[in-house]
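Hi there,

I know you've been waiting on this one. I reran it after we fixed the sequence typo, so this is the corrected version. Both the input and the resulting structure follow.
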Amino acid sequence: MNLGLSFSETIDKETFSLAEIPAQVETESVDVETLLDELGKIGTFIDITRVNRVQGVKNEITKLTERSAVIVQEIREMTSSDLKNLQNVFQFLLDGRETMAMETLKLLSIDTRIIATKAEQLIMGFENTLTNVINALEDTQRTKGAREKHRNDLERRGKFHDGRLEEVAIDALHNSIGALKSLSTIMMNTAVFWRQLQAHCETLGNEGMQKMIERAMFYHEEKRIEVLTSTGFKNKGIVFYSKWVALDDICGKHK
């Protein structure tokens, strides 16, 4: 039984296709370009910072960003496969095989939970690292304050040469403070990125499509066809597919 669906549908005078998703794909809330620009500066800021405590954070940041890149690649591989499976869902509906469509959607829902869990792990990692960077920043600011006080004491006692040496140390600490502030901003923004991605995955896993198909399966044939060919169902299906495309697109940019 063919339900009369197709891979190209006109909704509210606008034509949508599963091969050509609407322009308003929901990627606006996740600013990947800015995040990538900031992540690219991490090495520079770490090099600028010479505070001992930061050297301990350096490996932590490096491992975390590498782990982030690996997980993005894992998600991209999953979404590429899931997009094909999602097209199968629509094909199953075209063929009247609602049970197969339901089973496939359940598998997709499992993938969204896996991705959300990976995102949660990275959120915790970046937030913990942010705490360590802030602690290092506070230590550096205290050290700078103590150095400035010592320099002022030397200058009051007429030891200008020693005071100038202290000035060099203070300048280095000042640069370190600026770099640490930049690192803390990057850690915070990266945690926000993963939290947004996690929230996006949770909307994919809310089982709205599943429930709609599941309810339709209990209707008599005429009513079931009416539901599955309705503008509302087509619109929900295209938005759902668009969100998967958005997830794949976000991960594709994050290389």
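Quick highlight: The chain has a mean pLDDT of 75.

Best,
R. S.
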